[in-house]
Amino acid sequence: xxxxxxDGPHIDRLREVSDAASRAFSLLPARPEDVTPPPxxxxxAAARRLRTDPxxxxxxxxxxxxxxxxxxRQLMERQALHRVDxxxxxxxxxxxxxxxxxxxxDRMTELCDRYGLTxxxxxLDLGPLGTLLxx
Length: 135
Known about the structure:
The chain is mainly α. 61% of the residues lie in helices and 0% in strands. It contains four helices and no strands. Helix 3 packs antiparallel against helix 4 (91-114). The longest helix is centred in the middle third of the chain and has 30 residues, at 57-86.
């Protein structure tokens, strides 16, 4: 098969990515019933991590929502520290930002307490990727 003429390095790279994606999708089964189940050991480990108890569904949902909020809070905190390090903020803005982040941290702690969670409980285990939040 002849390669089309090059339109530049970006177009060539897009073609490479497109070809790789096409090859990857061609490996997927056409129908869900063609999917083979995971090996027994791996499936059992996933089942142990996934709790589907109807009695704890509210707490689990709150845990998930608070995890997302905590992730966003930490990202905002890092961005704020970066801006402070860059010198982009006035002293008043730094003070206001610091107070806001402290209040947000306190509210997160209060919400965790209300549902019997700790901030450590919000750090989801992503398996081989490690944990969602930094230690």
